[in-house]
Design brief:
Distance between the termini: 80 Å
Radius of gyration: 45 Å
Number of helices: 6
Structural class: alpha+beta
Number of strands: 8
Shape: elongated
Oligomer: single chain
Helix content: 40-55%
């Protein structure tokens, strides 16, 4: 329809110019100089038609909403988890020390009728072993630190004589071998015995250490609870260490 209108308008202009040329050639020259050419009018009509289409389209404002964007959407960077050194805990050493002393002084030698009696041999031996364990736990709590870094859980020694309390490598594990450092993705289980509220042992199992038979089916580790077990639990969970759900 618009093409027919444009065509009829063009024919009308040509007829007017032809008629003017026959009646007055000078007027035609003047008319040609003052009136826009056919190509100019055609461009103006095309632009007007396009504007009409754009203005008449009630959904024109939606045209730019679904255009693909060339700018890539950058995901916000995940905050890095800082390295953590777990606090020492001397409650286990204190409990074993108190238990050992109580056993020694509560086990009287047979046949003693005095108010103050020497301990029995069994009581002295058993109480002495418990007291020695208490001393060992206290020493370990002083010189060993449980460390969580970006990649692994590690047991490190601390230089208490240095002002900065520098940490250094604790060497190989004397029981199962290998470094005392385990990647988080190698964990298959961890727990506290008898509970995290009253811990005696820290347990975890990992598949990083090679077993004596040459397999990597999972190596079990136990450590005395000489560190803050609440902090250990928090870090195990935060670092994504696998744990077997209890029934």
């Amino acid at each position: 329809m618009k093409f027919h209108v444009i065509l009829l308008s063009s024919v009308s202009v040509l007829l007017q110019e032809a008629s003017a040329f026959q009646s007055n050639p000078c007027a035609v020259a003047h008319f040609s100089r003052t009136q826009p050419s056919f190509s100019t009018r055609h461009n103006q009509w095309s632009l007007a038609a396009a504007n009409e289409n754009e203005e008449g389209n009630p959904f024109g404002f939606l045209q730019g909403l679904f255009q693909p964007s060339n700018s890539a959407v950058e995901e916000p960077a995940k905050p890095e988890i800082p390295d953590v050194v777990i606090d020492s805990d001397y409650k286990l050493a204190a409990a074993f020390g108190a238990l050992g002393i109580a056993i020694i002084f509560s086990s009287h030698a047979s046949g003693c009728t005095s108010t103050i009696c020497p301990p029995s041999v069994g009581g002295a031996v058993f109480g002495g072993i418990i007291s020695l364990l208490a001393s060992l736990f206290a020493v370990q709590a002083t010189r060993i630190r449980f460390v969580f870094d970006k990649e692994a859980f590690e047991l490190a020694n601390i230089d208490v004589s240095s002002p900065e309390n520098k940490l250094y490598d604790s060497g190989e594990n004397i029981i199962v071998g290998g470094a005392n450092r385990w990647m988080y993705d190698s964990f298959v289980n961890w727990d506290f015995y008898p509970s995290v509220d009253f811990p005696i042992l820290v347990y975890f199992k990992e598949t990083q250490t090679q077993k004596p038979d040459g397999s990597y089916s999972g190596q079990v580790h136990f450590f005395p609870a000489i560190a803050n077990c609440k902090q250990l639990q928090e870090q195990f969970e935060l670092r994504g260490c696998a744990k077997v759900a209890k029934n």
